[in-house]
């Protein structure tokens, strides 16, 4: 069977990583790349460097990785759908709900495989947490809390922190719990002098009653990517920077030594950091999308799911603007 012919459009910071993975992905030939600004990171590796999605389509590609700025996702996605080319589009799916709806509907109407690059789903720590939650290892889930903060990225100019970073937490929370958001309340701040927000605090509720909270900013000198899932039997802490998953069991041993109880609490439970395989999330994401295009069983972030994430993100922005809880 011939290899799939793949293209890549967008050769910026994320595009260079997608190019690296696509160039070494079994069963796939990266035949050309495109960016109107040229190949500043040397992604092409001798392949043709084109200027537009139309030129990329002319190369006879089976599917395309879209890593252009968010504001161009709609136009590029619709062009690929019209040409009958499968696509995986970097998150968020598009700049707003109407645009995301158009893209999702275009791929569905043509029977094409469309996916969104919410890479955190493929982080080994969250994959393992999801597996253990499905097995009932944590019991009922009560709360999901995430912290995602770090320095300001000058390269992001077309959306704020909610749609750029916050969409990671919206997607992973819905996915790991297998629930949907039913309400959000948010507050934002504008501290970097730009049009868009650079800090958000969100409280949410999911369809089975799970309470969530998400702290996201571009203002911190430290980089943090943490998800805490609390349930009947204890809590999972997933650090997606190190891909570690740690289980904190509920306390069963009473601490009677007052000096220790003062700083460790009145009871203790076991703490276990799981030994798990740690494949690169970006490679897993591409492997899953390749398999989906080939018609095999695959775990992709569908465009319908990506659309729902955009809707929740916009509900957060609306809540911050009005000061009211938004029901979804």
Automatic annotation (TrEMBL):
GO molecular function per UniProt: nucleotide binding
InterPro entries noted in UniProt: Gfo/Idh/MocA-like_OxRdtase_C, Gfo/Idh/MocA-like_OxRdtase_N, Gfo/Idh/MocA_Oxidoreductases, NAD(P)-bd_dom_sf
Span of domain Gfo/Idh/MocA-like oxidoreductase C-terminal: 131-328
Top-level taxon of origin: Bacteria
Domain Gfo/Idh/MocA-like oxidoreductase N-terminal: 5-118
Family (UniProt): Belongs to the Gfo/Idh/MocA family.
Protein name per the record: Dehydrogenase
Species for this entry: Knoellia aerolata DSM 18566
